[in-house]
Amino acid sequence: MKAARLFVLMEQYPEDKLSVIDAMKARRYKEDEATNRVLQMQVRRAIERLKNEGFGPPTKPPPEVPSAGPVAAAASASAKVSPIPPSKNADTRVVSFEAHPDAPAQLGSIPKFDPEEKTRKTAKQAQKERNNKKRKEKINTAAHKRCTLWYSIESEKENGLSASEICKRVNEVEFKGKTSIQPRTVTRYVRDGLAGQSPKKRGYTGLLDDHVFKLVCDAFETYVQIQQINSKDWQHKIKLLAALVNAVCGINQVVGDRVKDNMLLRVLNATNINFKADVAVAVEERRLLWTTYDNISRWFNTWEETLLELGFAHKNEKGETVIPVDQLRRICNIDESEISFDGSKSNAGGPDYDPNPPRSGKPASKSSTKITFIGGINAAGEPIPPHFQCPTAATIEENEKL
After folding, report:
1. How do the domains of the chain map onto residue ranges?
2. What is the pTM of this model?
3. Which of 2, 99, 158, 401 is least crowded, fewest Cβ atoms below 10 Å from its Cβ?
């Protein structure tokens, strides 16, 4: 949260120290949002979380301890064996907790723990997480609308249900515990005349109106679909898409040495949840450019005409193309693949290891470790006998051997 980061960074200047409200206003919170108690507590919790993670200005290094002299250093080194130095990849930090002052002394001190490892998500994982979050938001929006509408109807009755009872029935019974609509939120929305409307988004209002932003998202979805149909989705790089969205919205393209991608990230968060991010399969450019709707449709039509012309198929009474069972065995699909003897090209996960000591590599024979495997199957589902093409350095057939 930007307001929490600003608050922590300004703590190094006591004369210019900001309050939580001032930090929220500086990060474009509105007046009513900055004075909102709920939002203030969110910022305060974010400040505590940043401090626990060590976020803030760099601290001064501790003073160096003077050496005890070469003789004392040699004696100390000979009296003990130095441990294995940690690897550069090893995480030497620890998470420490302090006991409460009122805790009994019999409990002892709290042990130190290893920190959690931070993982960076791939594009596919981040997109899945974004899609799941959007699905949850849709469910939460539907539950919010039902609660506010229900409470607005019950509030007009003499002995109507309370907001707590309505929220409990909607959250636990109707949506099976997947939502957590709060009674105070329902009461506030009904009091403000917002019953049946979607929850308000937090933060400051964007530069684009809602209907304009929706048009930008629709245009972005259409552009991606058109590029994908014309086999040009490999051009969907972040820099190219960010420059395109910025040009449409009239935003300055470059800040420093990079292209601004804030608006692109907003569009990606709001676009169709059916979009997926994945690594594209590497193919030859000539094949990629050929893969269009017209070419694929023409290929299948030509395939049908060829089957009828060569006698592999015939037309039935309904005019449909039918391949007899006895002709299926004559239609084969054969392909080649690479086989490695030592598994040196495998991408499977390896065994666990300690990052502190040095690690050796995996033994592998690198001379003639791969052969060509040719196999296939016919349209009847019967496999074709395999063929193994082994490499050889022989120049004449008499010298070839396995």
Report:
1. 2-52, 138-202, 210-270, 324-342+369-402
2. 0.44
3. 158
